[in-house]
Amino acid sequence: MTPNNGNSVSLIRKAIILLTVLIVLVVFLIIFQFTDIAFRVWDRLQHTSPGFLVFYLIIISLIAAAGAGLIWKIWTVGRNRKNGKTPAAERKRVSLEELQARAAAARAQGLDTSAIDAEIEAIAAEPQELELAFFGKISTGKSSLIQTLLPHATIDTSIIGGSTATIERYHYENPRGLSLTLLDMPGTHQAGADGTLDQEVMNAARRVHIVAYVIDQDLTESDMISILRLHAFDKPMLVILNKTNLYSASELEELQTRIRARLPEGVAFITSASAHRQSVRRLNPDGSTAWQEREAPGEVSALLQQLAQMTAERGTLTARNRQALLALADEALSERLAHYRRERGEAMVKSYARKAMLGGVAAVGPGTDVLIQGYLGMDMLKHLTKLYDVPTRDIDLQTLVEAASSKVKTHLTVILALAGNVCKAFPGVGTVIGGASHAVAYGLIFESLGRATLQALEHSSQGALNTQNIMQNFEEQLHHDLETRAQSLVRLALGSREKNRQS
């Protein structure tokens, strides 16, 4: 080490020591200040009335509690809950009456709700038999486990796995009064390419009363993903370690310990051994030996005991399942209604764009009076908001039209130029529809405004329905694929013209 380096290190050490001394002195100063204040406050409180002292302590306690609560709120906001499970209380709860009212309103709008109505009738009918669904990867022995429970049932099992391609249903009943419908679900490597559960299988899981996940080895990452997703449905759930006959006693004990440590809270864990074929060595009368395969009985007593405990509270299971079915039907209705509104809205926007083109033909110059003052702009927005059951008071249509017209002024020159170039690609279009470039420009403007409004209406539940968001969407639409859209509008106008001639 050179002398210069030694001096530098020495200076740094001295600086750190000096900084440490200063920090200690500041800490002492703060402690002394607080101590002095505390003693002075305490001395004064000694000479006050007991009533004031109690009041003072209550105020201090409330402020401290509020501060602690605020700190906890800041610390926990945005953090994921353990295992990603959403408490049932935080999920949207739908009543049968609310669902029926929503279905009636959708039907009044023209939506075919026959499938939803059938689901509502099935939910209202009650009661239904308890259902247990077996999930798990292929070749974990789900079908063999059901075969063990129902030895006389015809169940296709295979040693290579993947025997269940669809959801199979079986009825189980024993002399002790346990009655269940067993669902053999497709293996997760069949249901999803990544080994997880696809949407159809997940919806089936939401419809059953009890969920069982079957494994035959230690939990893998895809197993945990599937288990957590199933557990999030807030249903009684058990994980079954099957094929225990393949493990020694020490291996099985170690495996059970590892699995239990990883399972979410509230998930039951049991072991089982489904009926299987095993090779045994048989001694012949002549003294020779031969290997022979025979059916080994399964061990499912722990499974039956666990199911008996779970089904003892039938009323609770039925109520939870009813709520799950209502939520599924409500989601299906929302999806169908959204799809219906989207299709109707897009058709409505195209219709008004065509009307705007016809209005543009009569325009003397490239103005925006049709959009600002004309009937078409306001009428289109009124019909779109009515389609989505959004009161017109929720959005100032006049302000929206004025904001849109102001936005159009900055883009009109470019839109007209583009419309003119597009019209040149259609021979004779100018003589067919007259003021072609003006017409196409009006069509693009109305189509852009309609699409922007539709986009905001689709996300109105998220607070996106305001003039600012619609204008932002409008700006994006005015730059989105204008040439292709202009060509489509010209073809639409020519097609309408041809139909009118033929009629």
TrEMBL record:
InterPro entries: GTP-bd (IPR006073), P-loop_NTPase (IPR027417). Keywords: Membrane, Transmembrane, Transmembrane helix. Residues 132-243 form the G domain. GO terms for cellular component: cytoplasm. GO terms for biological process: tRNA methylation; tRNA wobble uridine modification. Gene3D superfamilies: P-loop containing nucleotide triphosphate hydrolases. This is GTP-binding domain protein.
